[in-house]
Structures are given as structure tokens and as C-alpha cells.
């Protein structure tokens, strides 16, 4: 893992000296390309995961089940994630809460980029257009920008395992990402498992007994809640009021 630790040190120093997002991405892509040109360091990481089951238990569940958190900077300036893609696996078109750099470590990965044509004001509606596509091998990188400027979908076009190493900067929106369906022109919020359970509870309370649910929602809003959950409760109250 020495190679990876060196990478994290270089990335941390670079980010501390750069202010502009595009300069961070430009310099960061060089570092990610170097890291992903050889996979030996990741073998050592996975070896520890396999031989120490508790290491997997310590992984915090995210939106994506194939996600592994490898490193989180103490100052929250960046996080390094690995995604292991089974044969033919493809994800949903989505946005991001920060800028990001994606490098292919094993096999090949495909990417399709999109732009949003609507203004985002209509709840649950979107209109997308594909703008670019590509396939990336080991040592090759792509990048995303925050929110609507970073819409894309990745896939594994091979018949074997593929791996990507993803670096994300400081978040500008925490707690959820958005999934886009251009066939239905819909956009929906996607939450990590813990948050999703509470969101589903909120929706079900309103479906069972709207009058009693209103009191529950108001009581919940008197206690500390992360912004994304407060939004769900507030929207649920607005729907109950019609």
C-alpha cells in the first residue's frame, strides 16, 4: 500500500495549493492516472479485506453496493473510493455532490456523459441529451463536475471484473444523489440505506394516516435532522396540506 499512501500525500498537498476546480481536476488526473497504471497496491488492500472480515464490516454502506471506501482525508478535502464492477454491470445516469476523477484500474470501463436541457424547476422532471461517450483502460481517466454539470453513467463492457478508482472533492450537496431516466424524463433522489429507511417511513406514515402523520412530522422537525431529511419532512407536510 506504499504506492497508495504516496498518492494520497501528493493529492493532499496538491489540493491544499490549488483553488480552482478545473486546476484541481487537471492535476489530480495526472496523479490518478499514475496510481491506476498498476493494480498491485489494490491487491494488497483486498487481501486485508478478505483475511480480516471485520474490515468489510467497518465499511459504511453507500448508495452503490459495489463501493469500497479506501481513504478519507482527515480535513474532508477528498475521499478515495474503489468500485468493483461485475461483468456487464451498468449504473444509472446520476449526478454528483462534488467534483470527481475516475480512473480505470482493472480491465475497461465505459462512460456516457449527459447535459440537462430543462431548467430543473419542475419537481421530478428532466430532459437529457447524451453529449459524449468513451471507453477507458488502466491508467486512463475521466472526470465529473458537481450537480447538473456532472451527469453521467458508467458501465463494464467486458465479460470479467473491472475496477475503477474514484476521487471526490469536498461536497457541495450532502446526503443524496439524483437518478435520471431519459426514457421517462424523470429524476429522483437516491439515498444511502440508513437515510432511505427513514424516507420510506415518512412516506408510509402519510399513506396510512395523513392526520396523525402530520403531527409526527412536525414533532420530528423540532429535533436535529440532516438537511436532506428535513427537506423530506417539509415536503411531506406540504403534500398533506395539498
Named CATH topology of the largest domain: Jelly Rolls
How many distinct folded domains? Answer: 2
Query: Which regions have little confidence, pLDDT < 50, spanning 5+ residues?
Result: none
Can you name the CATH architecture of the largest domain?
Sandwich
Considering the protein shown, what is the CATH homologous superfamily of the largest domain?
Jelly Rolls
Number of helices: 7
Tell me, briefly, the overall form: globular
**Spatial order of the strands forming the largest sheet:** 1-2-9-4-7
Return the structural class.
Answer: alpha+beta
Main sheet: strands, sense, barrel: 5 strands, antiparallel
Q: How would you sum up this structure, described in words?
A:
This protein is of the alpha+beta class and 242 residues long. The chain folds into two domains: 2-190, Sandwich (Jelly Rolls), CATH 2.60.120; 193-241, no CATH class. The chain contains seven helices and eleven strands. The protein has helices at 2-17, 21-35, 40-51, 53-57, 193-208, 210-221, 227-241; strands spanning 67-72, 78-85, 93-94, 100-106, 109-116, 128-136, 141-144, 152-155, 162-169, 177-181, 186-190. The strands form three sheets. The chain has a five-stranded antiparallel sheet with strand order 1-2-9-4-7, with helices on one face. A three-stranded antiparallel sheet has the order 3-10-11, with no helix packed on it. Strands 6-5-8 form a three-stranded antiparallel sheet, with no helix packed on it. α1 (2-17) runs antiparallel to α2 and α5 (193-208) crosses α6 (210-221). The longest helix is centred in the first third of the chain and has 16 residues, at 2-17. The chain is globular, with a radius of gyration of 20 Å.
